[in-house]
Structures are given as structure tokens and as C-alpha cells.
Specification:
This protein is mainly α and 233 residues long. The protein has two domains: 53 residues; 128 residues, Cytochrome Bc1 Complex, Chain D, domain 2 (Orthogonal Bundle). The chain contains eleven helices and two strands; from the N terminus they run H-H-H-H-E-E-H-H-H-H-H-H-H. Strands 1-2 form a two-stranded antiparallel ribbon. Helix 5 packs across helix 10 and helix 9 crosses helix 10. The longest helix is centred in the N-terminal third of the chain and has 33 residues.
Length: 233
């Protein structure tokens, strides 16, 4: 039988504590303290090993959350004739909230051609929203006025065409919407970041930018025209 161990000495008994607190102790006292410490450690080792074995045994008992009865994507499943565990969607199924019946609004196309004008129009709220979204997502490449000299272009990215080019001034609104939706050239699709309504708002704001760079005096409202002619703010 293993002799009993005085664990009080491990926690700082009279002699062990004295040896720790004083540097002027005899060699015999240090040897005694070392002997007590060695017995304490020897007594704890079997207990620690047993506890560790119990923990390992318990952790190996249930693996339900680690090894679930499920199929991984693209895994084979002999139950189906085509052997695919990932099943195709039922024909005609529509994700919740994505019925998208208005084809022109959600695709920018009607009858196989881009729609001519934005369904949101050019109201103040639409333009303010379009300006906000444009400044966030478009201006890094196209700059704030649409000239195609944004900050990342100045740092080496391929320059996009200016919105003030005659060709882009004449394209239908649906064309600009589709470019944002699908991407074009080095420009990626922005459909994941910008929802359809905001894409249309950006289209309206681009039209406002184009007008701002090609406006004539006749485009200015009559009450403000005289002030412009006089050069007064």
C-alpha cells in the first residue's frame, strides 16, 4: 500500500513555507522540502492520469454532432436514379421574395431590347438616392462627375469610358442598368451589392450628371435664367 502523503506540506507547511520565505536555510532543510515536494507530485500523477483517461473515454462515447447522418454537397446517393444527393429545383419554383414578375424592372429589358427610360423617373428623392449609391459604388472608377478618372484609375486600374461620350448619352436607360447587373469588360457585376431599385436610381443620377455637363441656357428654369445672364449668384 502506498504510504499516506501529507498534502498540507505541499500547500506550504511550516518547514516548506519557511524554506520558501528565507534564503538562509540549511542544506538539510532544503533536502527535506524537496523530498516533500517529490512525494506530493508522485501522489498526484496517478490521479491526474486516471482523470485524463476518463475524459478521453467520455469524449469518445458520443460523436453525433461530429459524424451526422447527412450528405455533403455533390456527394453520391444511390437512392436516386441519377445518383445525386443534391437535388435539382422543382420546375417553376421561386425563392421567397423573388417572384420578380416585372421583367422590365428586374432585368432592364422589355421585348428583348433595353427599356428606354428608368421606371423610377427623375424625382428629387430618386436622384438623391442615386447620388448616394453612385458615390459609394461607382465613383472609385468613374469619379464624381462621370469622366472615368476615379481614384483607382489614377492608381493603375483600366480607365472606363466617360459617361459624357455621345454614344453613352444616347443609349437607353435599360442598357446602363444591364451593365451594372451583368458587368462589362473589366467591370464586375454589381447585382450582389446594389439591389434593382438602387441600380435604377443610379441610372437616373447618371442622366443628371450627363445633363450637368451638356446643359444649355434654355435648360435653366426661367426664374433663374436672368440671374445667370447677369452673373449674379
Amino acid at each position: 500500500m502506498r504510504p499516506a502523503t501529507d498534502f498540507r506540506a505541499c500547500a506550504g507547511g511550516p518547514r516548506f513555507g519557511a524554506a520558501s520565505a528565507s534564503r538562509s536555510v540549511s542544506g538539510a532543510a532544503l533536502a527535506h522540502d524537496a523530498s516533500i515536494l517529490e512525494r506530493c507530485c508522485a501522489a498526484l500523477r496517478p490521479r491526474g492520469s486516471a482523470a485524463l483517461l476518463c475524459l478521453l473515454a467520455l469524449s469518445a462515447c458520443r460523436q453525433d454532432m461530429h459524424d451526422q447522418p447527412k450528405y455533403q454537397p455533390f456527394e453520391r446517393n444511390a437512392f436516386f436514379a441519377d445518383q445525386r444527393a443534391s437535388r435539382p429545383l422543382v420546375p417553376g419554383v421561386v425563392a421567397r421574395g423573388h417572384l420578380d414578375e416585372d421583367t422590365a424592372f428586374f432585368t432592364g429589358s422589355s421585348g428583348g431590347a433595353p427599356v428606354q427610360t428608368s421606371p423610377l423617373g427623375l424625382g428629387r428623392d430618386v436622384l438623391l438616392r442615386g447620388q448616394e449609391r453612385y458615390d459609394i459604388y461607382c465613383s472609385p472608377c468613374h469619379d464624381r462627375v462621370g469622366s472615368g478618372e476615379g481614384m483607382i484609375v489614377l492608381r493603375g486600374y483600366k480607365q472606363p469610358p466617360t459617361f459624357h461620350d455621345e454614344r453613352l448619352r444616347r443609349v437607353p436607360d435599360g442598357y446602363l442598368f444591364q451593365v451594372m447587373t451583368r458587368g462589362f469588360g473589366t467591370m464586375p457585376s454589381y447585382a450582389p451589392q446594389v439591389d434593382p431599385r438602387d441600380r435604377w436610381a443610379i441610372v437616373s443620377y447618371i442622366r443628371a450628371l450627363q445633363l450637368s455637363q451638356h446643359a444649355t441656357l434654355s435648360d435653366v428654369p426661367e426664374p433663374d435664367r436672368a440671374a445667370l445672364e447677369a452673373g449674379t449668384p
